[in-house]
Specification:
Elements (H helix, E strand, L loop, with lengths): L3 E12 L2 E12 L3 E5 L6 H8 L7 E6 L2 E2 L5 H10 E4 L11 H12 L4 H14 L15 H13 L5 E5 L7 H16 L3 E5 L3 H7 L2 E6 L2 E6 L1 H6 L3 H9 L3
Parallel strand pairs: 3-8, 3-9, 6-7, 7-8
Antiparallel strand pairs: 1-2, 1-4, 4-5, 9-10
Helix pairs in contact: 3-4, 3-5, 5-6
This protein binds adenosine-5'-diphosphate (ADP) and magnesium ion.
The site of magnesium ion has 3 residues, from helix 1.
């Protein structure tokens, strides 16, 4: 098996008396896509946010390659937030600036590239997300699915090794869902590893090498999509069946 690039060891997290994670162990290998399923409020988003230090875990360890990252200061986290990119649930574009400026933002922030290099990189990224030539449009000119793809382009522009997708297809119609999933597939083929939080089980089965189910603070299933579909565990079955309704 490929190199482990992300490892979560015995993660515990609570908010007050609300215990969210109660001993999560998880590994992600180079180039692997992992689908993370779980009911609403089970702590999927909190887990993604914990990986990049937007939430602090109470117990446990998080490693990116051989670096322990869960205890790093904000400053020291910056290079790891470039390697591990988080694609927000909402897409989270800046409304008052153009598509170009949205995608270019991390390049202006974190690199010393010239303006013309940045223009080239953004143009290349727009090609990848099938929005060639749309630099000057504003987010409000775009459909929800296009906005999601622009958000993903921004998350990708610094060449991360891992991308964390928080429900990237939520609220999209079937055509836009397909466009987003096709983009995720393209990125996977480029060798990018990902954790894909979703309720969209058909997309997860199509895209992921491994499916993980989070339930009551623990991982109760962690295996291939084929085993997932054949699982006899009653909680896992509920997820499998919900996608066939
Ligand atoms: N910053 C926070 N403060 C307090 N409670 C939180 C915070 N963020 C999330 N929670 C709670 O943690 C639980 C898990 O949230 P979340 O990870 O968003 O669930 P989901 O699996 O739906 O993504 C929920 O009960 C939520 O209310
Ligand atoms: Mg969530």
């Amino acid at each position: 098996m490929n190199e482990v690039i992300l490892e979560l060891k015995n993660i515990h997290k609570k908010f007050g008396k609300n215990k969210i994670h109660q001993g999560i162990n998880l590994t992600l290998h180079r180039g692997e896509s992992l689908g993370l399923l779980g009911g609403s409020g089970t702590g999927k988003s909190v887990l993604l946010r914990s990986i990049i230090g937007l939430e602090r875990i109470d117990e446990g360890e998080i490693f990116f390659k051989n670096n322990r990252i869960d205890q790093l200061s904000e400053n020291k986290l910056t290079p790891f937030r470039i390697k591990i990119s988080y694609s927000f649930q909402s897409g989270a574009l800046f409304d008052s600036i153009s598509v170009f400026e949205n995608i270019a933002y991390p390049l202006f922030e974190h690199t010393k590239f010239s303006y013309s290099q940045i223009k080239d990189q953004v143009a290349e990224m727009l090609k990848l997300i099938d929005l060639q030539g749309k630099e000057e449009l504003m987010p409000s000119d775009l459909s929800g699915g296009m906005q999601k793809r622009v958000g993903m382009a921004r998350a990708m522009i610094l060449n991360p090794e891992i991308i964390l997708y928080d429900e990237p297809t939520a609220g999209l119609d079937p055509a836009n869902t397909l466009n987003v999933v096709e983009l995720m597939l393209k990125l996977k083929k480029k060798g990018l590893a990902s954790i894909f939080v979703t309720h969209d089980i058909p997309s997860a089965i199509m895209l992921c090498d491994r499916i993980v189910v989070l339930h009551e603070g623990k991982i109760i299933f962690n295996d291939t999509p084929i085993k997932f579909q054949k699982s006899e565990d009653p909680i896992v079955r509920k997820f499998v069946l919900s996608s066939r309704e």
